[in-house]
């Protein structure tokens, strides 16, 4: 069912089924004298966008008529580019991988909406997922006349990310003022980590947002409480253009507070609660694997906060039907299978600072303690 605006209870859901194919994409470029004029068409695309496709893939796209120069289709790879030419590459529509589409509303007012994101749904466009995202469902919802959002011209947007395999609370802003405030909350928390000055220590105690996760990890944690301060950086990794985030001594500061909720010696696993005071990408997955307890089912991160398998020298030049690279054989960050849930969020309202809001996302059964399970019976 669709939710009414300003709904706070009971919980409701919204979402539209995904079309079989998305609408494709158009990428625009203008040739500049300084760097691009005089290049051939194939040289321009294969060098500037080498992360999109190998050389043979770009040749296929050109021969397929997917590139225009000043509005005219050009199929000659050696066509010479001149200053001011307008180039457009048309990425043809494709069927995106399966993904859930229903989103549960946990809290909503005129400034923001908090969603319960299911695992398997990407937040923002990227890679193979350009349409099947939380952002697209928010845009479809706003365009319908089911709420005042369409009348107000509001376009809700996520202000932070959750990994595709992570479930739970996702905050979205409905106004520019709320977006600025909420984004600042997340940025401020991260910027304070690593600064031990008294002023920042005091400010840390008064942070505007607190995030608590549930996770199920491999092995038995002996300590009841652990503070992890391992820095997080990047390394080259196949299929991840900007580099894979990993535990790295030269990385940026990160802080996670881990508390054991329940140990299961028979299954050799531990249920934990994690409060993060910084927001580095994949922080919880990296930190827990760093201390020797990767998330149960995590296909990517292994003990030490590093990928399970890695060969930086191997480059796959094969290409898919659309000319782009084949999906990497090795695991990538968007792969699912692990158990991580953004469970609770406490924050100052983005426009009414005196108002403190606590939001809770219902726990998946596998992330409940035995006592919590019994309470629901």
Give the structural class. Answer: alpha+beta
Q: From the coordinates shown, what is the CATH architecture of the domain at 208-341?
A: 2-Layer Sandwich
Let me know the CATH homologous superfamily of the domain at 208-341: Pseudouridine synthase
Order of helices and strands: EEHHEEEEEHHEEHHEEEEEEHEEEEH
Could you describe the largest sheet, including whether it forms a barrel? 11 strands, mixed
Span of the ends, CA to CA: 26 Å
As a whole number of angstroms, the C-alpha radius of gyration is 23 Å
Mean of residue pLDDT? 88
Percent in helix: 10-25%
How large is the share of residues in beta strands? 25-35%
Uncertain spans: 4-9
CATH topology of the domain at 208-341: Pseudouridine synthase
**What is the tally of beta strands?**
19
Shape: globular
Q: What's the tally of helices?
A: 8
Classified by CATH, the class of the domain at 208-341 is Alpha Beta
Structure explained in plain terms:
Mean pLDDT is 88; it is low at 4-9. With 377 residues, the chain is of the alpha+beta class. The chain is globular. The strands form four sheets. Strands 1, 6, 7, 8, 9, 10, 11, 14, 15, 18 and 19 form an eleven-stranded mixed sheet that branches. A four-stranded antiparallel sheet has the order 2-5-3-4, with no helix packed on it. The protein has eight helices and 19 strands. Among the domains are: 25-91, RNA-binding S4 domain (Structural Genomics Hypothetical 15.5 Kd Protein In mrcA-pckA Intergenic Region, Chain A, Roll), CATH 3.10.290.10; 208-341, Pseudouridine synthase, CATH 3.30.2350. 19% of the residues lie in helices and 28% in strands. InterPro entries: PsdUridine_synth_cat_dom_sf, PsdUridine_synth_RluA-like_CS, PsdUridine_synth_RsuA/RluA, RluA_PseudoU_synthase. Residues 112-289 form the Pseudouridine synthase RsuA/RluA-like domain. GO terms for molecular function: pseudouridine synthase activity; RNA binding.
């Amino acid at each position: 069912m669709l939710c009414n605006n300003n709904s706070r209870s009971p919980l409701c859901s919204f979402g539209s089924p995904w079309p079989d194919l998305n609408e494709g994409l158009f990428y625009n470029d203008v040739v500049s004298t300084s760097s691009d004029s005089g290049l051939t068409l194939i040289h321009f695309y294969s060098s500037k966008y080498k992360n999109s496709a190998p050389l043979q893939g770009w040749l296929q796209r050109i021969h397929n008529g997917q590139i225009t120069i000043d509005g005219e289709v050009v199929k000659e790879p050696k066509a010479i580019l001149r200053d001011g030419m307008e180039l457009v590459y048309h990425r043809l529509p494709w069927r995106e991988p399966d993904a859930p589409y229903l989103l549960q509303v946990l809290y909503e007012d005129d400034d923001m909406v908090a969603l319960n994101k299911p695992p398997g749904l990407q937040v923002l466009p990227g890679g193979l997922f350009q349409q099947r995202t939380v952002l697209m469902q928010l845009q479809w919802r706003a365009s319908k006349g089911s709420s005042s959002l369409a009348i107000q011209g509001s376009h809700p947007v996520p202000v932070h990310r959750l990994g595709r395999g992570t479930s739970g609370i996702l905050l979205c802003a409905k106004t520019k003022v709320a977006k600025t405030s909420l984004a600042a909350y997340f940025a401020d928390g991260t910027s304070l980590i690593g600064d031990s000055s008294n002023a920042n220590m005091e400010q840390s105690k008064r942070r505007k947002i607190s995030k608590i996760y549930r996770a199920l990890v491999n092995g038995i944690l002996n300590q009841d409480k652990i503070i992890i301060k391992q820095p997080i950086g990047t390394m080259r990794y196949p299929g991840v253009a900007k580099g894979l985030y990993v535990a790295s001594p030269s990385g940026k500061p990160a802080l996670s507070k881990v508390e054991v909720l329940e140990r299961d010696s028979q299954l050799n696993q531990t249920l934990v609660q994690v409060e993060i005071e910084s927001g580095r990408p994949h922080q919880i997955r990296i930190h827990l694997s760093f201390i020797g307890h990767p998330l149960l089912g995590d296909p990517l991160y292994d003990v030490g906060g590093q990928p399970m398998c890695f060969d930086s020298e191997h480059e796959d030049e094969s290409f898919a039907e659309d000319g782009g690279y084949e999906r990497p054989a090795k695991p990538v960050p968007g792969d699912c299978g692990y158990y991580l849930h953004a469970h609770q969020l406490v924050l100052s309202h983005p426009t009414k600072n005196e108002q403190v809001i606590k939001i809770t996302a219902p726990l998946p059964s596998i992330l409940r303690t035995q006592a919590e399970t019994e309470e629901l019976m």
